[in-house]
Amino acid sequence: VTFWCAVALVDGLAVPGVRILEVAGVITAVERAPAEPGDVPLGTVLPGMADAHSHVFHRALRGRTHGDGGDFWRWRERMYAAAAALDPALYRELATAVFAELLVSGWTAVGEFHYLHHTSDGSPYPEAHAMERAVIEAACDVGIRLTLLDTLYLAGGVDTALSPAQRRFGDASAAAWVDRWTALRELERPGVTVGAAFHSVRAAPRAAMATALALLPADLPLHVHLSEQPAENADCLRATGLTPTGLLHELGALTPRLSVVHATHLTDDDVALLGTARVTVVMCPTTEADLGDGIGPARRLADAGCAIALGSDQNAVADPFLEARGLEYGERLASGTRGRFSPRALGSTLGVDGYASLGQTGGIAVGAWCDLVEVDAHSRRTVGSAPDQLWLSATASDVRRVIVGGRVVAADGLLADGTDPARLLGDAVAELDGSSR
Ligand SMILES: [Zn+2]
C-alpha cells in the first residue's frame, strides 16, 4: 500500500506532500512527491505512538478512586481487588476493550506489563498460558502492536512472602519463571512479540534477578518499575545498602536493552548510572500525577544519556498527547522554565524511543513499521497550531485514522469494523462489577 500525506512529521519536521510506501507492514520508501492514482490520501500524519507501559486491568478503577483520599498504597489495595475478579475470559474481554481505546486514541503499539499469571491461589490454569493468551488474542482482535512484558514477581516486599492477593502473580522460582517465559515465546506471531520484566526490586529478590539475567537472551527488551515511591528506596537501602538503581547496576542489569519505569525518586549517582548505561526511562506522567508519586527528573536523565519513553500505566487516561504534555508540564512546574523538551523531542519519546523500548522500530523512516496516526489539524483544539507542535495542542479526540502495519485499524474513534470502544469498555466493566460482587 502507498499512503500520501498532505503533511507528515518526518524526524520531527513537518514535511508537505509525502508518499509513504509499505511492503509487508514495513516502510520501504519515504519521498516528497505528488499523489499518484491508487495512493491512500491522508491529512496530517504523525508516526505511530508507543505506549511503553500499560496495565490493562487498572482501567477498571478509572474514575472510582477519588472519593476518599489516600496514597499509592491504599490505591494498590483497590487495584488488587480488581485483579482478583479476573479469569481468562474476563481478562480477554477487558484487555480487548482497553486495547481498543488505546488504539483509537493513537497508541499504535503497547507494552503490556503483565503479571496476572495464575489462578487466585497461585496454581496454574489447566490451559497453558491462559492469561497470556487472553492478552495476545485481545491485541490481535483489535489490531494494536503488542510487546507482552511477562513479569517476574516472587515476593511481596524485600524479604517478604507474597500476600494472598499477590499469590497469582508468582512463580515457584526465577528458573521456573524463565521456563514458563521461554515456552511463552511460542505464542509470538506477526504483531506480537514477547519481552520480559522484573516487577521491581521489591517483588524480584536480588538472587532471582541474577538467575533470570543469566538465563534470558541478552538483546531482549527488559522492563522494571524503579523508585516510584520513597518507601521502595528505603526498603532496598535497608536490605542491601544500595538504592534500587545501585542494586540493578551491581547485577549488571543497566544496559541499553533495559527500560526503567517511573524513576521518580533518584539520587545524583542513580541518574549518572542510568545515563551512562543508556537505559531508557519510561515516564507515566498522568499516572504519576494521579497517584501522587512525584515528578521524576526526566530532563536530567535525558541530559545524562537516557532515552525517554512514555506510558499510560494505569490507563486512567488513554491519550498519548496528554502524556507528552505531562512530561513537559511537570518539568516546567518544577523548573520555572519552558521548552524543557522540544516538540521534536516529545515526538521522539512517543515514536522512535518508545518503539525501541518495546524492541520495535518506529518513526516515519525506511525500515520502520508502517504505523501511522492521522490527526485533525483543524479541530477547535488544533486549528492554527504549527504541525510540529501538535503534541502541545491535540488530544486523543483529534485522532482520525490509525494505521498499524500498513492496515487501517481504526477511524474517528471506532475500530475498523465499526466497533465502539466505549461499548466494549462498558460491557467489560459491568461484567467485572458483577463478578466481584
Ligand atoms: Zn506499572
Describe this structure in words.
With 437 residues, this protein is an alpha/beta fold. The protein has helices at 72-84, 88-104, 130-142, 174-184, 206-215, 230-240, 244-250, 268-276, 285-290, 298-304, 320-335, 343-350, 352-357, 421-436, and strands spanning 2-10, 13-23, 26-32, 40-47, 49-54, 107-114, 145-152, 192-198, 222-226, 258-262, 280-283, 307-310, 372-375, 399-404, 407-411, 414-415. The strands form two sheets. The chain has an eight-stranded mixed sheet with strand order 3-2-1-4-13-14-15-16. Helix 8 (268-276) links the parallel strand 10 (258-262) and strand 11. Helix 11 (320-335) crosses helix 12 (343-350). The longest helix has 17 residues, at 88-104. The protein starts with a strand and ends with a helix. The model has no long low-confidence stretch (mean pLDDT 96). Zinc ion is lined by residues 53, 55, 113, 225, 261, 313.
* Cα gyration radius (Å): 21 Å
> How many H/I helices?
14
Task: Give the helix level as a range of percent.
Answer: 25-40%
Reading side by side through the largest sheet, how are the strands ordered? 3-2-1-4-13-14-15-16
Share of β-strand residues: 15-25%
Q: What is the overall shape?
A: globular
